Structures are given as C-alpha cells and as structure tokens.
Amino acid sequence: MTVDPAFEAALSALRDHGIAGPIDCALVLGTGLGSVVEDVENPVVVAYSALPGFPQGEVSGHARQLCCGTLFGRKVLIYQGRAHYYEGGDPAVMRLPLGILTALGSPPLILTNAAGSLRPEMGPGSLALITDHINLNGPNPLIGDTGDGRFVPMVDAYDPLLRDGLMRAAAGEGVPLGEGVYLWFTGPSFETPAEIRMAKVLGADLVGMSTVPEVILARRHGLRVAAISVVTNMGAGLHGGAPHHSETRDVAGTASHALRRLLRGFLPELT
Predict the structure, then answer these.
(1) Which residues touch 45 (CB under 8 Å, ≥6 apart)?
(2) Which phi and psi angles does 27 have, rounded to 5°?
(3) How far apart are CA 78 and CA 23, in angstroms?
(4) Which residues pair with 111 in a beta bridge?
(5) Taking the CB of residue 16, how many other CB atoms lie within 10 A of it?
C-alpha cells in the first residue's frame, strides 16, 4: 500500500504536539461556533499552519486551528474552522484533515455549519439536524479518485444512530432541534431569491456553502457522520431574508450556547 507523505507528515506533527488516538469524537465547527472549545478540559491547540497539508487562508469566524482535549467526558478532536470550496475551487480541500481521523480510531464525526432556513418554524438562532443533502451546484470531491472505493453509497450518509442520539440529547437538554434537507451552494456569493425558490421546489429546508463535500469525503473513509446547522438567517427573499456574512457570524456566535448544551447531552451517551 502506498504511503501518502502528506498524511504521514500531518500525523507526525500531531504526535509532536501530544495528539494521538484513539479519539472518541471529532467535530468541525462552522462560522461563529468557535466558543464550543471553551468547554474543553486540558486543551492542546495547534494552528493549521503548523500541520503539513492542512488548509491555509482565512475566513472571518473560522480560527483555523485544532483543539484536542476532554469535552463532557469524551476525548475529542475539534477542527476550529474549515476550508471551503469557494476559497480555491478544490472540493476536496478537507481531504487530509478528515482522512487523518482513520489513524486516530475512526471516531464519529459531527459537522456543524451556519445555514439559511427555508422554513419559518426554523428561524434564526435555531438548530437543525441535517437528514440528507442535495449536491446540485457543486462538484464531487471524489472526482479523480481511483478504485471501486470511490463509488460511495450515500443512503444514510447522515448516520441514523447518531441522529437519534442527538435528538434524545436535545430533548433531555431542552434544546429545540429541527430536521431538514441541506442544499449545498458553492458560494461565496449568497443565493438569489430565485435560487431559494428553486431550492424549496427541490425539497431543501436549509442552504449553505459547506458540509456536503466533507460528508462525501468522510463516508469515503468509512466514518460515521452527523451534521447540525445553526440557522443564521432566512433564505433570500423569504420573510425579509437578505443574508450577509456579518449576520451569519454574529447570529451563529449567539446561538452557539445551544449547540454547547446539545453536545453536553450527546457526548456522554455516545457509543
């Protein structure tokens, strides 16, 4: 089997910082959700710039660093910020950061994002569990892969057992948690009102600029995945929706306390 030098270099750098497996759960934090790490005990923080092969660049609301420690009794690896397709045109930009999880015990992966809502009952500040996605406008991050492993089945890509656990945790913590289908737009421009009307016709409940390529990559590596959207705005043209990035960042930051409560109920029961 061919060893990927970038993969090995990234793992070596993690070990140099005292980060090794097994990890109980991995999380990717979306725009404005970095406060989750405030609950981590004995954190080890490493900037992406210190990890070979990790994405560089900057998007406000994304710290671009790893945090490893104990969160509500579980050993976690938290990606504070992600790289997006719109930053360089590479849908597989998170391939290496997610791929190294296979060498850390292949933990369940919880993705989070800031999203626009197409349903009035899931308004700004609420949380929504993604049940499925639509990859209509974006390329596939597995294009160029070889072998039969690239033909990844996507039925139950959002793991039913993880979703059930999150719903139970939400009920136990008193955190309202909606559900819906997420449609990926590539960004960085926000959607037009016409595109939002199209998304509703196609069956979408949420829209955003991330997560879908990561789910595909994670499933390629055999990882169990769940994803949570923090609703930061209504879709363009819906109920006064006129989204902009500062709104996304600010509302997500305010709503992050609900996400922290949800994780407090979920992680101790994770199996």
Answers:
(1) 37, 65, 66, 67
(2) -135, 140
(3) 10
(4) 28, 227
(5) 11
The pLDDT-based confidence of 1 (bands split at 50, 70, 90) is very low
Residue 4 to residues 1, 8, 45, 79, 146, Cα–Cα distance (Å):
10, 6, 24, 21, 15
In angstroms and rounded to an integer, the radius of gyration of the C-alpha atoms of the chain is: 17
246 CB neighbour count, 10 Å cutoff: 10
Instruction: Please tell me what DSSP assigns to residue 64.
Output: -
- Segment 198-232, tens digit of pLDDT: 999 999 999 999 999 999 999 999 999 999 999 99
Element (H, E) at 253: helix 245-266
* pLDDT tens digits, 110-139: 999 999 999 999 999 999 999 999 998 778
Residue 2 pLDDT > 70, yes or no? no
Predicted confidence (pLDDT) per residue in 139-180, tens digit: 899 999 999 999 999 999 999 999 999 999 999 999 999 999
DSSP 8-state assignment for residue 39? G
Q: Is 122 helix (H, G, I), strand (E, B) or coil?
A: coil
With tokens 């994304």, the residue in question is: 62
Measured between alpha carbons, how far is 256 from 42 in angstroms, rounded to an integer?
21
Burial category of 196 from C-beta neighbours within 10 Å (exposed 0-12, middle 13-18, buried 19 and up): buried
pLDDT at 253 > cutoff 80:
no
pTM assigned to the model:
0.92
Listed in sequence order, the residues at least 6 apart from 190 whose beta carbon sits closer than 8 Å to its beta carbon are: 116, 236, 243, 244
Name the phi and psi angles at 185, rounded to 5: -105, 145
The type of residue at 226 is: A
- Domains by residue range for the chain, with CATH: 21-37+82-269 (3.40.50.1580)
